[in-house]
Amino acid sequence: MAPPSPQLVPLEEKRTPVDEAGDSEKHEYSAAGLSDFDFTPEEQRRIIRHVDVRLVLTIGALYCVSLMDRTNLGAANIAGMSTDLNLMNNNHYSIISLVFFVTYVVFQPPSTIIVRKIGPRIHLAAITVLWGSCMIGMGFVSKWEHMAGLRVVLGILEAGFFPSCVYLLSTWYTRYELGKRNSVFYMVGCIAAAFAGILAYGIMQMAGLAGLNGWRWIFIMEGLLTCILGVGGYWLLVDFPDSKRKTWSFLGPREREWICARVQADRGDVEPQPFSFARYLGAGTDPKIWLYGMVFFNTTTITYALAYFLPLILVQNMGFTVAQAQCLGAPPYVLAGIVMYATSWWGDRYHLRGPVVAFNMILCLIGLPIMGFHPNPAVRYFGVFLTTAGANSNVPAAMSYQANNIRGQWKRAFCSATFVSFGGIGGIAGSLVFRSEDAPGYRPGLYACIATCLLNLIIVAVLSISFYFLNRQADRGERELECEGDDDYQPGFRYTY
């Protein structure tokens, strides 16, 4: 267990004075302690709540449409797209599902560099509006090849969103505040996107309007919603806490200094060093980064498989009608939201990450066999609840696991991009595990998901045990942890297992 974060205590430190306009050209932070900037505990809580509302809820709303737009194929498929575009032949549906992830994975590593250079407001708002426009175009395609092409473009545009959000969140909060914020960010998007099935069912009723089938209106209306939120996001999104860009109307300069100083005391990397490809790519020599990525790959294989194929499974395997399947996809995500927040709160409270990941995987290991093998459809649907809760709760848990154990801004940027890229590869796997020829039982897909859960348990055990012994060595003064060089050195850093 890692030691608690440093407390905010008064300290004489060298700082650049703030001028009358309320801005400062440069800030120096001491790793030995912090200034409380004359804020009372209540004022400190108010500042954090302000950041929570402005940052977490805004990117959560944008993530909602992101998740909805990349996974609404399932709803559109059973709403007539499969027939109109001839998707049941030669695995066309699986193809248009997976091509998204090819570009989604390839274009993620540059995104954390771009977002650092131009800022989250411009980067995230622009790509949101652009992929919303792409979604609108999907409502007018006439061939499955055209749909596949637009899915490729959608992958390019969405590639920059999730890793940039993960990176942005990690720069604003201390390590043991991050779990709850990751869970709320993902929970807002996940639960809202889950109700997209109900929204899609309502939009389907527009079938015939302007001569368009219902599934086309799903893409058109959800694309319009995405564009509107993207425009609003430009005004609501915030920049990095150390940014010198003039985007700070929601926080005063003293509040900004306090945010930066507490993060500096927690992990000592509030300001990035000058960018160099050698340093950025050199982070890839750390094997932990690839193991974090594998944890996320195993997790997203299950989450995307559920997102793309749960409507089909509910119809073909459990005997529900199309209307029932559109609506029954939402309740399991409500349970997932409860579980992910409860486990994230517990992880933050007790400074633990690995046990949370393991608990979520055990939920999946209980739910998957029930979902796949029980003879009663109602009981199989209960298995969907457990599987959905475990898999989706593991997304913010895995995000916090890697964020707590990485230091250095450019290493953090590389890790965020690599981490989410592995999640995109998991999306490719998730789009393929439930093959049409395996319907209605989809047994090979269930076996694959069970295997990913078991692999996650093994990886987390290896990482957490190694963290325990590395922390012990550091406690005895035998080594320093995550020491990337003199600029990034942080005395007292310990891994969170």
TrEMBL record:
Region (Disordered): 1-28
SUPFAM superfamilies xrefs: MFS general substrate transporter (SSF103473)
Membrane-spanning residues: 93-115, 122-142, 148-172, 184-203, 215-237, 289-310, 330-347, 354-373, 379-401, 413-433, 445-470
Highest taxon of source: Eukaryota
Signal sequence residues: none
Pfam entry (one): MFS_1
Record's keyword terms, sorted: Membrane, Transmembrane, Transmembrane helix, Transport
Amino acid composition bias (Basic and acidic residues), ranges on this chain: 11-28
Every Major facilitator superfamily (MFS) profile domain range: 55-474
Cellular component terms per the entry's GO annotation: membrane
Keyword Isomerase among UniProt keywords: no
An example molecular function term from Gene Ontology annotations: transmembrane transporter activity
Membrane topology summary: Multi-pass membrane protein
Cell compartment(s), UniProt: Membrane
Protein name: MFS general substrate transporter
Native source organism of the sequence: Lasiosphaeria miniovina
